[in-house]
Amino acid sequence: MNSQKTSWNRRHFLQGSLLGAGAAISSTGETAVAADPGAKEPEVVQSFDVLVVGGGTAGTVAAIQAGRLGAKTLIVERGSQLGGTMTTGGVAFPGLFDAWGKQVIAGIGWELVKESVEMDEGEFPNFAKVPQRHWHNQIYTNQFLYAILAEEKCAAAGVEIAYYEFPQAVERTEQGWQIDCVGFGTRRRVTCRQIIDCTGGAEVVGMLGFPRLREAERQPGSFLYMLGESHEPGRNQIHRLYVHGADSTNSRTATQANLAGRKSILEQVRQKKQRLMHLQPETGFRESYRIEGETVVTVEDYVSGRFFDDAISYAFYPVDLHTRDGVKPEPLKPGVVPTIPLRALIPKGSRDLMVAGRCLGSDRLANSGLRVQAACMGMGQAAGVAAALAAKQGKTPLEIPLADIRDLLREHGQIVPERA
Predict the structure, then answer these.
(1) What is the mean pLDDT of residues 172-182?
(2) What mean pLDDT is predicted for residues 303-318?
(3) DSSP state, 185?
(4) Exposure of 19 by Cβ count < 10 A (0-12 exposed, 13-18 middle, 19+ buried)?
(5) If 0-12 CB within 10 Å is exposed, 13-18 middle and 19+ buried, where does residue 20 land?
(6) CA–CA separation, 49 vs 384, rounded Å?
(7) How many whole angstroms separate alpha carbon 415 and alpha carbon 410?
(8) H or E stretch including 406?
(9) Residues 6 or more apart from 117 whose CB is under 8 A from it?
């Protein structure tokens, strides 16, 4: 009898205090319960034009671009901030925006980097000067400013952000896609016309059963930290420690990478007897799954600077494969500037689905140069344009005239490849 009374009182309390989808605190100090955690139906049901999964280097730019074109856009990020490698990973030293004495990548990614540096009163390299080493023209950026500027630009573009969530199920519908996302205390059902998978490992593509590529051995990850001296964001690089065997395939392997990295850093602290002044929250991963795209960029395409007929952005970085013995970058020959084709962002045989970032269709060696931040920003912006136009016109991205995509990219500040 008492248990029944207690159960009734709890239900009565829940029903009486429910004020809507968002919990609130009233002027009298009473709290509202947002939802019964045992509910089977999603607490949030929403419809969008474009869903971006993954708020990293490419995903942030893709979402802002789609939003600026008027597409109703949601970005779902399983972490706590935007920026990915730039912020959570701590590699706030992006490159490369220039090649052979001129800027080759601009647009929204450059806008974010530029504003971060200017607000922080930092310095820019001279792009008119060809550096002796490629990293001389990478840009010290304040990772903390970058993250909050990215949120500001999302808000200005009307982009909604959902942190701490990730898709659990994706299925095709007559209208487009239905995606069920889960976070702690939240189940969100999203319907949308277009998906851009910016997860780094093409995880939505894998959930849908499209083929992905991956080697048995992956490049080591890096855990970033600072010993003995203060880290000055936007002024210096952080110390880096290789995490061999780092694998971002799933939560279990990512957990192991983080545990291994932190254990090694603790050993460094004890051995060197220096203070630990800075520690990034997680391992930075270089390599995971790549899609089998409608086009797969090969290392021969990359090092020759092949101009693809559907090129939508440049890329520029040495072939940069890290191993247990370190890395020996293989610079591109003078004058060579690779291009990224739109079809490398389309999983083979798919519709209304794109990727952007390091998971684009490419072989392993080409990917080692294509995976860097400026290139990911460029392809993210192109994916944002293509998805927004496809959603608006009721088409799939490859049905959108390439000239329309390129015109809008130029209008929004991107440098579009042109045949020599």
Answers:
(1) 95
(2) 98
(3) T
(4) middle
(5) exposed
(6) 11
(7) 6
(8) helix 402-411
(9) 123, 124, 139, 140, 141, 142, 234
Residue 326 confidence (pLDDT): 87
Task: Tokens for 344, please give them.
Answer: 């490398």
How does residue 29 score in pLDDT terms, banded at 50, 70 and 90? very low
Return the percentage of the chain with pLDDT > 90, whole number. Answer: 86
286/283 Cα distance (integer angstroms): 10
Helices (H) and strands (E) in the chain, counts: 10, 18
Backbone angles phi, psi at 276, to 5 degrees: -85, 110
The answer to whether the beta carbons of residues 125 and 96 sit under 8 Å apart is no
pLDDT of residue 102: 97
For residue 177, report the phi and psi dihedrals to the nearest 5 degrees: -130, 145
Neighbouring CB atoms inside 10 A of 279's CB total 17
> Measured between alpha carbons, how far is 162 from 160 in angstroms, rounded to an integer?
7
Would you mind telling me the total number of residues written for the chain in this entry?
420
β-bridge pairing 73-77 and 44-53: parallel
The residue type found at 159 is V
* DSSP of 64-110: HHHHHTT--EEEEESSSSS-GGGTTS-------SEETTEE---HHHH
- Report the C-alpha gap between 291 and 21 in whole angstroms: 37
| CATH number at 44-215+288-411 | 3.50.50.60
Where is average pLDDT lowest: 22-31, 247-256, 274-283, 410-419? Answer: 22-31
Residue 72 has pLDDT above 90, yes or no: yes
Task: Tell me 400's DSSP state.
Answer: S
pLDDT of residue 38: 52
Residue 235: pLDDT above 80?
yes
Span 173-201, average pLDDT: 96
pTM across the whole model: 0.90
Which residue in 160, 166, 207 sits closest to 188, CA to CA? 166
Domain ranges of the chain: 44-215+288-411, 221-279
Percent of the residues in the chain that have a pLDDT greater than 70, as a whole number? 91
> How far apart, in whole angstroms, are the C-alpha atoms of residue 386 and residue 50?
10
pLDDT at 325: 85
> 133 exposed, middle or buried (CB, 10 Å; 0-12, 13-18, 19+)?
exposed
Cα(306)–Cα(161) distance, rounded to whole angstroms? Answer: 37
